[in-house]
Amino acid sequence: MNLREGRIGKQEGLCLAAISMCVVGLFTLDPDFTYSNGNVSYVTLAIAAILSLLVFLLVSACMKRSGYEELSEMLEDTCGKVGRSVISTILMLGFAFAAYDPLARFVQVMHGLFFSGVTYRMILVFMLPSIIIIAWMGLETLGRTAKCYFILLLVVTLATVLAAAGEYESYRLYPILGCGLKQGMQLSLSETVAFLPAFTALLICCKGLNGHKNMRNVGIYAGLISAAICAVIQLLLGMVFTYSELQKLVMPLCRINHISIDEGNIMRLDKIAQIFWMNGSMLTGAFYIYAGSALFSRSFGIRDIRPVVVPVGLLTGIFVLMEFGGVLSKNEWLSHLWISAGGAVFAVPLIVSSLISLFKRNENTEKNYAKGV
Amino acid sequence: MQKASKVILTLVLCLSLLMPMTACMNPISLEKYGYVLTIGVDEGEKKKYEITLELQRELAGAEQNMGPGGVILLSEQGDTIFEAINTLYRRLAFDLSFARTYAFVFGKKIAESGKMQDFFEMSLEKLRIRQSAILLIAEGTAKEFLGGRNANNEANATRVHENLLQSERTIGETSIMNIGTLFESCEGRRFDVALTYGAVDDKIVTDAKQQDIASTGENPIEDPKDKLGGMQTHMDGAALFDGWKMVSKLSAHDTQILNIASGRFNSGSIMMNIDKDLQYVILTKLADCRIGIEMDDGIKADINLTLSITIEQDPTGELGRTWEEKGKKMVTDYFESELERVAKHCQEVNSDAIGIGRYVSKQFNSVEEWEAFCWKDIYPEIEIEFNAEIVLGDIYIAITRQ
Amino acid sequence: MGEIKMSFFKKISEKLAFDKPDTRYELLEREKGDPQKMFGWNDIYAQGEEAARACPSSIEEVEKELKKIFRTDINKDVIFTKLRAGSKNILLVHMNGMASANTISEYIIKPILGLNESVCPDLDMLSECCIEIAEMHRETNLIDIKLAIMEGQTALFLNGEPMAIILESRGYEKRSISGAENEKVVRGPKEGFNESLRTNITLVRRIIRSDDLVVETRLSGGDNNTSIAIIYRDGVADRSLIDEVKKRLARINIRMVFSTGIIEQLIEDSPNSPIPQSLATERPDRTANYIMRGGVAVLADGTPFAVIVPITFSTLMSSSEDIYLRKPVGSIMRLVRYIGAAISILLPGYFLALALFHQGLLSTEVLSTIVQSRKTVFEPLGIEMLLILAVFQLIREAGMRVPGSIGQAIGIIGGLIVGQAAVAANIASSMVLIIVALSGLGNFCIPDYSTQLAASYFRIAFMIAAWMGGLLGLSAAFMLFIAYLASLKSFGVPFLAPYAPKTYSKRPLILRGSIKMNHRSEDYINAACDTLPKRSTNE
After folding, report:
1. At A326, is the secondary structure helix, strand, or coil?
2. Residue range A178-213, pLDDT digits in tens
3. Where along chain B do its domains lie?
4. Which residues does chain A have within 8 Å of residue B102's beta carbon, measured at their own beta carbons?
5. Which residue out of C312, C468, C472 would a mutagenesis test of the A interface target, given it has the greatest number of A Cβ atoms within 10 Å?
6. Which CATH class is domain B267-402?
7. Helix, strand, coil percentages for chain C (3-state, nearest 5)
8. For the purposes of burial, counting CB atoms within 10 Å of the CB of C294, is it exposed (0-12), middle (13-18) or buried (19 or more)?
9. Model ipTM?
10. What pTM did the predictor assign?
11. Contact residues on chain A for B26, CB-CB shorter than 8 A
12. Which chain B residues are Cβ-neighbours of C17 within 8 angstroms?
């Protein structure tokens, strides 16, 4: 086996990316925006995943063709050093925001379900240091921890949806695809915010994933698996709650067993599932913080990402505190912008940079052809 | 230099790990709580509501410091449940925990006035009550109902409640629904709920009372007219709702028929009264229930049921012997007529307890069309037709009886 | 401005030493080829040892030198014997008690004294025709001669020769081979290592009778000059692993090394970690098992434990008995072991989290029972749990330290009487006692002693995390624990291999694999695959 330092294998990368995508796709959708015209999220999420995967494959192909080993190299070559710095800063902020989103949701749920007598800050104090420490420990630790948690999360999710098996009714899905094609596409584009940060993080960790080929495979598998999981879970949620109920629920998956009449003591253990999903959101946050820090540090010539991880992590924490301090709710345009167009923060610079690189020659291309990579 | 940096890093790490220690998450040990099992809601005299809480006391056990066990009831009035609870706190030596609440009991007046919506406007999340908590309507007041249920001073109220529900579910004489279903019915507008209806009979001399009287050396049967044993409460059919408001009450038998019509019936014994003197007891199992909707010329609902029956009591002995000739038709006609009667009653009170609206919603392709469609306005006018397919399960016993 | 910012970042990085690459893992492949060349295995001078001293030709000078080295004016242990071998003088030097007087008398002195006076012997003649000792070699370095004498060998100096013959005459008292006290098995060999390095090497050689088994011995690096040996299979164990082990052993430069426990701490990747990154075992069969699969074992004179590297988490959780039992039974035992370990670490914290924060997860009956039992307990639940855990640890330590049957009795007395008395005195509730007892039993399911101890302290950390933050705190602590395990490495091998990272190993992680897989070496330590020789199809 290849024991290279700072590298992770395909399975670890897959688990890391898949957990991130599934957590964001299942738990952070804005209910009002998503379900206001019926429930089509089981289709739109899958489409969003495919769209994000296409963007990822485009960028990956351009990177390989031009011989870039890292995303920051491509950004520098196509946009110049200043452009690279600007884009890296924007992406770093985007990652911090992407990390804040699931974190804030789970802080809210933890507060509502378990700790209603304490402030949000107190709950955040437990989650944020753990996230920063895990991101600090590096990609290997992140990947292996994600590998350990992936099976746990799968089992827990499967147990949850199977426990609610008695409540699935197809009539709750109707009117099926009732929102129309235009709105469906709009939702799909907005839901790319669930997948694009994870794909971008994979691009940043290209070297850590042992090259383009592995990275591409990881992205494809992670995208398809996440699309399937999100679509199936959303479909099952749609069979438990009508769209009008879903509009009012923050995390419907956490309540899927609440309406079961045949409830015993075992059903109440769904709170353990929520704790595991919260851990998934912490891993997601750590991954995004790591990716944002890695890109930023490489772009600014800092050889080690660790001194950047802490401020990025703290920035994420500040975003969460801003949400619960009312700052973001007073400036709703920001959260609406993120919900509807957050994917563009990642997609636009990547696509532009890829298209520029397609028309640019890179002297590494000949070397790669010679090596047979 | 490296050592100094390591020391600094270690300090930073320790500080960050110590940070959670400063967070006071407000832990309260479990013995400081009283666990509310059921919440009863009635109309208050001085305030909007009178809230009755059923708490589990400690269970009787082997250790010497354990008490006799049982439940205690607390009641207080308030304009909201929070006000009532806050008032209760003043005279309680413990906090109240609603994490184990499994039922709400509403008095009949509250249910009929539609105030349940107002009551549920509060967030259940604040009290951490799961939406799986079942709903009951009490014939008199919820307070009387809870008092009657606990008159036997059962040591483990949770077990009693579970056993009651289990037996009712087996018989099918009541309809068990929870808060989640109620919310779905009122917000989704595709069906109405039929909630468990409970009655109190305080003439019953409970087991506990019999033992008390007998222990003093007296005859526990004070009045020959008294009923003896068991609980003073029982489930007595279902309460039909139109949205948030209770509109009618069905008897136990009618509730069984309703459950069959809506597909919720599992199995149970049904009394088939053909004539005044002839009463057959049929163990019925619902094998299949399909509802088809036609929307060509008005809305027509075809409900096709397959029932598998076993004849438990046949006073004449003819039903089984002449099953193919006339028995089957008799039973089929009986079921169809009963189903139509109950369905008509539901239409009269505008309660879609059968849930036809769920299948009507499947006919729409867009959310706008469905939102514009007022199902409850049209429901009383629709045509409902029942087709019952009766399959005699236990032919051998039927033929050889007598 | 940009340059100022970058230089500011660089300054911070330099001060906090972030910039320096992590050089701990020279074991790993490099993009530019093989690992760096290790400095000499036998180059003990790198550790600050004395420079070599040539052996004088004259035995008087030798005697004088050695008496000075050994401080014979105050140190009476070293025996100098002068003999006449034919026409020449001979000096024999040995350490009283370390060397066998009988061997010296019968097989060295007697044949020498039997030489005719007319014979003019040289070293060749003495070693080939006279002395009746099987193992002997020559040394010219006085320091090496000194070390040999201190080990119990006898040095023979012939007047006029600038070297000595070192004769194997070790005969010190040592413990006989007995059972492995801390790794008892029902089925399987009962032998355990003892304090003699030679005996221990022999025990391993009895099991591995393979020509590729290599035993390299050297001194430990401490001032007490303990002999250590590394054992591996040449051609099977990864070369860079062997080099790395040697390199780390060569770096040892402390005052005393008298146990593999000390060596283990000096060569591990993270010596400050509570979780060991090497396996200490007193069973030769277990040692042989890992050597056969491509591991490297380190033995030290004076300690009955072998240190095996590299290891993974599943190594610490497996017992030598697993392979001697049938597959289903062995798998169930392993599963029980993992469940026991999980219970040991998580149960107290989980119970505390539910009792303090998440009462809704407990059934009403359980709640009522616990409420009943805690009605008169005067301390908070967290303190009660900590107290009982501390008492449990005290009973455990006391039971181990007190000798003989009294030690066993203390366990029973502590468990039954103290526990019952604590409940009666309202210091503890019965539920907490049960939780702690279950947790303790689960702890004893962990086969490795160091891991047991680590688990018992981690359990307290989890308990405190649960006390502070309920399931949120417990899960955050658990996640950090998993991340910590994921970050650990044992000589470059990730601790959670072969699960994370996934390797080509077909051996199941928790359940016991098929016995036919036993011939496969481990992919994650880069050992040579399929160590069985290929058989022809005609057999």
Report:
1. coil
2. 777 888 888 899 999 999 999 999 999 998 898 899
3. 31-250, 267-402
4. 263
5. C472
6. alpha beta
7. 50, 15, 40
8. buried
9. 0.92
10. 0.86
11. 115, 117-118
12. 1-2, 5-6
